[in-house]
UniProtKB/TrEMBL annotation:
Endpoints of the signal sequence: 1-23
Protein keywords: Cell wall biogenesis/degradation, Hydrolase, Signal
Protein name: N-acetylmuramoyl-L-alanine amidase
Catalyses which reaction(s): Hydrolyzes the link between N-acetylmuramoyl residues and L-amino acid residues in certain cell-wall glycopeptides
Amino acid sequence: MHLHPLAAVIGGALCLAVGAAGAAERPSLDSLRFEFDRTQALVLAQAQRAAYPAYFRRAYARYPNLPAGTLEAMAYAETGWNHVRPDPAQDPHDLHMPRSYGVMGLYHGGGFADQVGEGARLIGRTAQQVIDDPESNILAAAALLDRALAASQGGTRSRAVARSEDLAPALARYAGYGASDGGLAAYARQSFAFGVLDTLQRGVDAQGVRIVPQALQLERAFAPEQLRKLRAPALRVDAADGSVRVDDAFAREVAGEVRLAPAGDVSTKAVDFGEAIWNPASSSNYSTAGNAMSAVILHTMEGSYAGSIAWFQNPSAQVSAHYLIRKSDGQITQMVREHHQAWHAKYHNNYTVGIEHDGRAADAGNWSSAMLNASARLTKSLCARRGIDCRTAWNGPGYDTWHLVPDSVRIKGHGMLSQNQNRYDPGKYFPWTNYYTLLNGGGTPSPGKYWVDTFADATGYKWPSTLTPLGTLYKGTHYVYCKAWGQEVRVGDSYNHYWLKTDLDVGPAGAWVSAYYLSRWGNDEARDNSGAVIPDC
């Protein structure tokens, strides 16, 4: 592969910067190689994406009922605007999802719908064109969505452009997750629709992907009870009758407000990790045999969060993982109890906990801070609850080929295990050094950043006050920039007037959280993990 000129310029700049720095400040060779390879991949991906906006415009011209931005949001949710080309030589049994193709991530059978073949027929092109050609791929997806929209409107189809909120039923029909229509399958389809509309509502402007945010009212897109489920911090899912319902008492337990007695029924019991949504895999896809739970294996889904939920509930899948994490906001779903054996790592299932991450290993831009932070919080919890030493996590480079590492490394990637030669996830762009730091609460922060631990989820605000909430900083290890004096936050005898400027896990950069949530320091103190006073802003 030839080096893109812009990547070469950026790489040269990185080398010059390293040369100018003092020897003590120089990054390791592995860190430099990681940044160079990632930069090169992002630049090449951005160059490839340059033609996509024109393809999307032509698709809207052919299918004028589709509201602008919808196709772009679908592509971002499914592939991150990457033209996906699965290896045809790979054994399907080694995959954790049916293969998907192209910018839109269209399925081609293998347990899910044949979106490639159906879309090709609708646009008058061959299946191979839909697989190989990005414009044909986008056009096929537009045709499938237009057909789903017509079906959802019945005999009263309007000739006007649909409102984005009205697409939720069509998006659920489009999802391609097979014929099952039970409660759990319906929830997976609704999750897909929610993910697309949430992307459209938030917007994206990064690495050549531009989706203009829209002021959507999701209350119009989903029934109130559906939306509660999609947004809820805690659900009860009954595997016996296929029901999914909000459990307000359990939500309060997760939030730390109450402590419930343990439930006896595993089919409706909550989760092993308090943040997670409990949404069980099909009993055909995991074993109830005992799991020693002495190691953690990280995966990428090679598909979407909603698609993985649907696939692990498909009895024919013969695959599962304990946890799935959504890229957009770090939402965590548990599908197999930790003490059972999920089928995710061949001969290593009897002692490992598997964590699937939304997206694809080959995507250099896949690793959102929300997903990484959620993954690290989950793994830190496993270390504390299951006696795994977080210091044994891999702290070297990632790989785009199978690369065996010693058994003493107890937190590592799928592609670092024996007997898993056909996998390399989570891939060469997974930031292992950063992940190690998140797990072990230390390391040297970047200039102007100070590492702190928080003992609970903290609401972020626009100002050093509780007037304008913006999002959430999750419990765990984070960086902050500086402190400022503001409104007192008090619980009993504990209080703090200091506020910390930081970037939220869910919400914007540069927000404020109360120093009350710091794990190690007392009233009106704001120190980092090393004990140093955080400077004033």
